[in-house]
Amino acid sequence: MSASAAHDHALAPNDLEAFWMPFTANRAFKKKPRMVTGAKDMHYLTADGRKVLDGAAGLWCCNAGHNRDPIVSAIQAQAGELDYAPAFQFGQPKAFALAARIAALAPGDLDHVFFANSGSEAVDSALKIALAYWNITGKGSKTRLIGRERGYHGVGFGGISVGGIVPNRKFFGSLLTGVDHLPHTYNREKQAFSRGEPEWGAHLADELERIIALHDASTIAAVIVEPMAGSTGVLPPPKGYLQRLREICDKHNILLIFDEVITGFGRLGFAFAAERYGVVPDMITFAKGVTSGTVPMGGVLVRKGIYDAFMQGPEHVIELFHGYTYSAHPLACAAGLATLDVYRDEGLFERARALEGAWADAMLGLKDLPGVLDIRTLGIVGAIDLAPAKDAPGKRAFEAMDRAFHEFDLMIRVTGDTIAVSPPLILTESDIGAIADRLGKVIRAVA
Ligand SMILES: Cc1ncc(COP(=O)(O)O)c(C=O)c1O
């Protein structure tokens, strides 16, 4: 395209062509866009003046709701005070303050924070820290990484290698070598319509023993799982499963990483799912809710022993050859500090815990609607499996998402034929009622 054509192109008001949208059916969107132009608290706003109830907290991230004044002001003030500072060899105070605040929310001795800019980068950082840790502690043969089927750990090569969502992997070559996967924990026959953590399935953690027997613990660096698998369609962990994984990793000297990009910052009623389950992993990856989605940020919480192991050798030498230009970006740090204040001052984690029962009742109340195969709930998360349309997997849920937005003023997420809902944690009982009511209408409309 010539420069002048590009200029004209950029000015064309309704041309949606240039933006290749991520994880989107581009052609369908561009024919009939689901466009938002503003947001406040529980709602997105559209150009034609509609208020769309946010049943998804954006992408599981706006836990404090939208355009909250204290967070907006903090970002605005920061932009005027210190726009950017390198985090390599230099610092700015809010990075240290935020790391300390996040560490204080984490259980056990998860005392150190490495900052990245997304969940994907957080995951790659955690996997690299695990490999480097064994390398520097004289156990360099421990290089294998164990993920889980149906796991989602972002889209970096590390994340898709340990992840277990087939379309996210199959187009992208041979991925990292030396990766194995635990089985996923879902069994509809045994678990359908269970509330919270299903009774059945803790024994699936013992599959880790089988994998260790196959490869030997001396070759395994780390196991990474989401405490609740989110993106695959919401799979709450079976009762006792995560505790069992911790025991097996301890027994064999393998690091355990919880990917809490979704479950962190109140989604399950606690700062981290690790606290809900009484399990201290060796690392926790986080993103999304740390800034309530306002400015990109991710990171890894690391146990003291791991951090300390790196703090050796001559003091002028870099201890970990890893980091991002935008690690601990000042705008993200300011947003993070203000977000954590909102969570604390409004008691949003406790609020999520208090509303969990009413939320589960509302979700499970949709059980008898036509075409509903299963409903799962945990914290302020719900998932509804719809019967797939004949010969067109994913089409029914896609239609549900589209019609929810255009006809019922509700934003939801879908994966395959599963609807996932995860509203901001500022929701009220009346919002729960409205979400359930609109979901019911959507499900009937696409049945
Ligand atoms: C558990 C988990 N890990 C990692 C990611 C990737 O995060 P991002 O999209 O910020 O790279 C996600 C995103 O949904 C996630 O749910």
Automatic annotation (TrEMBL):
GO terms for biological process: biotin biosynthetic process. Its EC number is 2.6.1.18. It holds the Pfam family Aminotran_3. Gene3D superfamilies: Aspartate Aminotransferase, domain 1 (3.90.1150.10), Type I PLP-dependent aspartate aminotransferase-like (Major domain) (3.40.640.10). Keywords: Aminotransferase, Pyridoxal phosphate, Pyruvate, Transferase. It is an enzyme of class 2 (transferase). CDD domains: OAT_like. Its cofactor is pyridoxal 5'-phosphate. GO terms for molecular function: adenosylmethionine-8-amino-7-oxononanoate transaminase activity; beta-alanine:pyruvate transaminase activity; pyridoxal phosphate binding. It comes from the Bacteria. Belongs to the class-III pyridoxal-phosphate-dependent aminotransferase family. PANTHER family: ADENOSYLMETHIONINE-8-AMINO-7-OXONONANOATE AMINOTRANSFERASE, BETA-ALANINE--PYRUVATE AMINOTRANSFERASE. This is Beta-alanine--pyruvate transaminase.
